[in-house]
């Protein structure tokens, strides 16, 4: 019973932080809310006994990726544009609609029960050691791992290009 209470408490905190990410008017506040969500998620991993995954969550996502997000936001020097307020309202409405659909699906899954895992998929799940995770990461999931680094590199190049074009206009 205490595990269930802790789970629901952490779930509420992570949901509140995620809503702050979406509905915050300033990008810096969104990134800080995302940082809070990452720390709560790491806490969830600790409660599950996945200490290595919790450490990776803090080091990689809360550390490296969010620092990259902050760097890009500060590099772009984002200022609110009054002409784009209508677009922001429409995007938020779309986000609320998609979030509502996801919540409805989650409620449906909770009511009907989760399906049993397929035996082939369940056999591929690592047992949690660093060696087994590393073997899967650098054999079976090598291409997605490398594509993620190229995606981050493309985001950095795009942010620098946008920042330089804004500076040249001024």
Write the layout of secondary structure elements.
Blueprint lengths: L1 H22 L3 H21 L3 H26 L8 H28 L6 H6 L5 H9 L3 H28 L1
Helix pairs in contact: 1-2, 2-3, 3-7
* Structural classification: mainly alpha
Q: How would you describe the shape?
A: globular
How big is the Rg? 20 Å
SS strand fraction: under 5%
- Structure annotation, total helices: 7
Mean pLDDT: 77
Would you mind describing this structure in some detail?
- With 170 residues, the protein is mostly helical.
- The chain has a domain at 119-170.
- Helix content is 82%, strand content 0%.
- The chain contains 7 helices and no strands.
- It starts with a helix and ends with a helix.
Brief summary:
The protein has 170 residues and is an all-alpha fold.
Summary keywords:
170 residues; 7 helices; 0% strand; globular
């Amino acid at each position: 019973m205490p595990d269930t209470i802790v789970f629901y408490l952490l779930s509420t905190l992570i949901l509140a932080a995620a809503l702050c990410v979406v509905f915050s008017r300033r990008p810096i506040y969104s990134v800080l809310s995302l940082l809070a969500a990452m720390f709560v998620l790491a806490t969830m991993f600790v409660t599950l006994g996945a200490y290595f995954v919790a450490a990776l969550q803090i080091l990689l996502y809360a550390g490296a990726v969010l620092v990259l997000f902050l760097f890009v936001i500060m590099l772009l020097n984002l200022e609110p544009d009054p002409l784009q307020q209508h677009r922001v309202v429409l995007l938020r409405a779309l986000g609320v609609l998609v979030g509502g659909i996801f919540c409805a699906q989650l409620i449906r899954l909770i009511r009907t029960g989760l399906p049993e895992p397929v035996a082939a998929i369940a056999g591929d799940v690592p047992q949690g050691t660093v060696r087994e995770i590393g073997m899967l990461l650098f054999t079976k999931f090598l291409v997605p791992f490398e594509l993620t680094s190229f995606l981050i590199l493309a985001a950095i190049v795009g942010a620098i290009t946008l920042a330089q074009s804004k500076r040249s206009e001024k």
